[in-house]
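Figure 6 in text form: structure in, sequence out.
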């Protein structure tokens, strides 16, 4: 049997059944499951939060390029000995004071530390976005595999049900003969044992189906139970068009997980460049504006002059004459709050330099740590590429093996079907015994189960290779 017939048989068995249901709105398709998972999966939400964290870190690094501008304002009361902020003289009375200030500090040059840190955070942001996309790709693959696993388990249930029903038919025939005390009682008991084995196998198949459904429901994070009978899948079975090396080359270009590893390496290199900046001087400009207010501040306006005695005397010719002086009178007036702020305003500005001389070798240690992180990122990238290469080669070999095994098993099923047809006729006519019938039936049932498993295994391997190509659904 050639490959064309193989793929036609696969399409007829799996694809046409789903195509007959494609018009039914109740059919649960693979695309619908993937859509639900991308909306509701909890692990994906966690990965999205990690990407948002990287976005915040990038904005923090970007804002560090802006100058620091700080304003301050205070208003208070002082009681007791203090310095009058208006006259700078010592006083011993209660006063209300207030200060207003504005300060600016901007880094002009620091060895490009902030610039390299910004680039590092931008690369980490891009890596986080790639990792989020890689998680989506992985989630799509996991949902696809869980979907195929459920379909395969459903197929196993259907095969084991048919297997048990076929055994039941023969058992009913032998039971009728047994009750009439005709035929060989041992053959009736053999069929009873075979039927019990078929029912046990069916119980295991149903349990495997439940486990597969639970796994799919967990990935979809849905409380609505999934009915496996409502699931449909239309698969176009065609020979896989890519070699293992072609898949690997496309993975290097398109697989988000590998792109994220490369970005992490570039970010680590920027971390080394930023650490080297710790050995260079830091130049900054600064400026400030300040003013103050005091409740004791007064404005004295001249109101006139007058003659007054000083209390001293001058003796002239034996007579005492009082000493008088001219005194200027002033009128005390409080200075308004905002007028004081305007009158007491002062500014400053300048340039500062910080030159690293000895800081406990922290700069050397930080640079060494960043170099280690860079080497770790390079090793992780190399390891990822090696692991993906090995996984792709293994998956491709498994896909080819599954295709070859399918050809052999299809021939085996055809042979066992003819053998069972003959043995069933012989057993029904009493020509052969139950042992030959059971052996022939088991051979056919096991071959059908193996063939059904292999069909889904082939599809699974193809989907894995498509994931590596960056072409997950």
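Output sequence:
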């Amino acid at each position: 049997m050639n490959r064309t017939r193989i793929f036609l048989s696969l399409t007829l068995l799996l694809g046409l059944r789903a195509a007959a249901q494609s018009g039914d709105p109740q059919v649960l398709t693979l695309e619908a499951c993937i859509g639900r998972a991308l909306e509701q999966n909890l692990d994906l939400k966690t990965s999205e939060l990690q990407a948002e964290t990287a976005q915040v870190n990038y904005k923090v690094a970007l804002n560090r390029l802006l100058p620091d501008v700080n304003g301050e304002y205070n208003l208070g009361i002082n009681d007791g000995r203090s310095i009058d902020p208006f006259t700078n003289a010592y006083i011993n009375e209660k006063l209300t004071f207030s200060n207003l200030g504005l300060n600016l500090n901007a880094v002009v040059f620091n060895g490009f530390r902030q610039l390299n840190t910004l680039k590092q955070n931008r690369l980490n942001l891009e890596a986080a976005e790639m990792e989020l996309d890689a998680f989506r790709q992985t989630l799509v693959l996991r949902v696809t595999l869980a979907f195929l696993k459920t379909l395969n388990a459903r197929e196993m249930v259907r095969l084991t049900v048919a297997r048990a029903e076929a055994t039941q038919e023969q058992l009913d025939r032998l039971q009728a003969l047994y009750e009439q005390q005709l035929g060989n009682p041992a053959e009736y008991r053999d069929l009873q044992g075979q039927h019990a084995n078929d029912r046990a196998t069916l119980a295991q198949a149903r349990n495997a189906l439940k486990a597969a459904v639970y796994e799919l429901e967990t990935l979809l994070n849905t409380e609505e139970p999934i009915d496996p009978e409502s699931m449909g899948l239309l698969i176009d079975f065609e020979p896989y068009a890519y070699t293992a090396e072609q898949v690997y080359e496309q993975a290097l270009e398109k697989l988000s997980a590998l792109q994220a590893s490369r970005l992490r390496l570039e970010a680590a290199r920027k971390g080394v460049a930023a650490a080297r900046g710790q050995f260079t001087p830091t130049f900054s400009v600064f400026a400030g504006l300040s003013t103050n207010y005091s409740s004791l501040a007064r404005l004295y306006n001249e109101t006139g002059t007058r003659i007054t005695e000083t209390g001293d005397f001058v003796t002239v010719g034996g007579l005492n004459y009082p000493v008088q002086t001219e005194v200027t009178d002033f009128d005390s007036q409080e200075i308004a709050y905002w007028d004081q702020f305007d009158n007491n305003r002062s500014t400053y500005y300048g340039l500062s330099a910080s030159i690293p001389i000895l800081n406990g070798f922290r700069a050397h240690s930080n640079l060494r740590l960043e170099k280690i992180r860079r080497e770790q990122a390079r090793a992780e990238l190399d390891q990822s590429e090696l692991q993906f290469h090995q996984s792709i080669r293994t998956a491709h070999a498994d896909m080819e093996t599954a295709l070859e095994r399918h050809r052999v098993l299809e021939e085996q099923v055809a042979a066992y079907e003819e053998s069972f047809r003959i043995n069933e006729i012989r057993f029904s006519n009493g020509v052969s015994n139950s042992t030959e019938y059971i052996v022939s039936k088991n051979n056919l049932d096991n071959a059908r189960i193996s063939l059904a498993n292999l069909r889904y295994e082939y599809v699974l391997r193809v989907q894995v290779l498509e994931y590596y190509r960056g072409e997950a659904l």
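Caption detail: Confidence is low (pLDDT under 50) at residues 1-23.
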